[in-house]
Amino acid sequence: MNSLTEENYLKALFNLSGGKGEATVNELSRQLGIKMPTVNSMMKKLAEKKLVLYQSYKPLKLTDKGRKEAAMVIRKHRLTEMFLVEKMGFGWDEVHQIAEQVEHIHAPVFFEKMDLLLGFPKVDPHGSPIPDKNGKMDWVNYRKLSDCNAGEAVILAAVTHSSDEFLKFLNSRDLGLGVKVKIKSVEIFDGSMIVSYGKRNAEALSKMVCENLLVH
Amino acid sequence: MNSLTEENYLKALFNLSGGKGEATVNELSRQLGIKMPTVNSMMKKLAEKKLVLYQSYKPLKLTDKGRKEAAMVIRKHRLTEMFLVEKMGFGWDEVHQIAEQVEHIHAPVFFEKMDLLLGFPKVDPHGSPIPDKNGKMDWVNYRKLSDCNAGEAVILAAVTHSSDEFLKFLNSRDLGLGVKVKIKSVEIFDGSMIVSYGKRNAEALSKMVCENLLVH
DNA sequence: TTATAAAGTTAGAGTATCCTAACATTAAAA
DNA sequence: TTTTAATGTTAGGATACTCTAACTTTATAA
After folding, report:
1. How far apart are alpha carbons B93 and B211 in whole angstroms?
2. Residue A166: partners with Cβ closer than 8 Å, 6 or more residues away
């Protein structure tokens, strides 16, 4: 059984090593807000537990076991977020902090019940995929809004990170998942976009915002 | 902000000091399964935080502050149990272990939402009162079933402790809160009772069981 | 009332998690 | 290619929570 602390390291490593399957001590350190030497020794500890592949001065990788255990924490986090939104009436900008705590609860039936009551959802309220009980996660091929072109019409499918401020900003512009957005123009010099959707006819979105919105 | 560990000490002390308002280091030690010297030093720490009144070789008391903080943990525990039973479909024998973990979540909105969705319940699934937001708890004057006499008809209102085995035993006999029980006879030599309720006409309940059932 | 048992306390040590300071290696730049 | 900057590692120490062993105080009983 992993400690709460270990679970947080595994989760962070899982999230960081998304693409290439590896991450550095430095990245993990910044992600967790924990100093490098501390991260370093925790990596050795997790390597002893066969959760992480550790070699001096080499990037970190999760073992299959480590990846699965990380995925289960993420599964619990995302099921919780979905439950909070769908069954308890919270907004998508309120659930991250709560789920951050609930994800560490050791009670399989609790999360299986959520899963059942929710009808086995595939994504969380931010559009992120929910790993299944075996730790498998469907990665759908979303595009960044910022990679789309003027004239296209796309549907918001996910946000890449779920910080309070970003979600509140989206709320304030009536932007939520499933919203159909038409790209009216793209500014060359700063990458910002003018888009229309719902009742809004000419909303400006900065490059930063467009990079954090995933569409299909 | 109290740590999870501190919260467990406060809760245990609250529960133990029910009647006379005090408890001993030894009792707390046995309740928590933690050795006396450890309890002793934690009591000094909590005394520094003005949560406990500590004097060498004297019984322990909670301060008003300590009592309130303990009550909030118990409130979270009992609201959680109620939510798990009423809104998620768990049995009353399944919720204690889960609530034991959920009670330590720091997110007032989470528990306020439960409270709201439940319609501000006054008791948990085991009949124990839920402290209000100020830590106030209505102690209703229940009687032990074992203190009742042959011929009386009473209604089960609470169980004094919610161990898995005890609750499963009650389930197996169709005994739940709200059940109207008639006492047909009381055995003098061992304190056991013959009772009737629902479709059962002559069920024997040991003294032990009768002492753990509260009625009105 | 003194002897003994129970409860409470102190001292010292171990594990988990974190830190800073100093040193080593690798990667980047001159 | 040598220097420098960034990253990684080791060493040693701090805090929170736990323990055992030994000692003190209080309560019980002879």
Report:
1. 19
2. A159, A209, A212
Q: What is the CATH number of domain A143-215?
A: 2.30.30.90
The CATH class of B4-62 is: mainly alpha
pLDDT per position as a tens digit, B64-91: 999 999 999 999 999 999 999 999 999 9
Comparing A72-139 with A143-215, is the CATH topology the same?
A: no
One-letter identity of residue B109 = V
Residue A185's SS3 state is strand
Cα B67 to chain centroid, rounded: 15
- List chain C nucleotides near protein: any atom < 7 Å from a Cβ: 6-12, 16-22, 25-26
* Closest C-alpha to B214, from B170, B159, B141: B159
- Domain boundaries, given as residue ranges, for chain B: 4-62, 71-139, 143-215
B28 touches strand D (CB under 7 A): no
Distance A17 CA to C29 C1' (A): 28
Q: Which residue has the tokens 């997110």?
A: B107
Residue of A98, A106, A117 lying closest to B110 (CB–CB): A98
Q: Which of A's residues 37-96 have CB atoms within 7 A of nucleic strand D?
A: 37, 40-41, 43-44, 55-59
In chain A, alpha helices (H): 4-16, 25-32, 36-48, 64-86, 95-102, 108-118, 164-172, 207-211
Residue closest to B10 by CA, chosen among B88, B78, B69, B94: B69
Tens of pLDDT, residues B85-140: 999 999 999 999 999 999 999 999 999 999 999 999 999 999 999 999 999 998 78
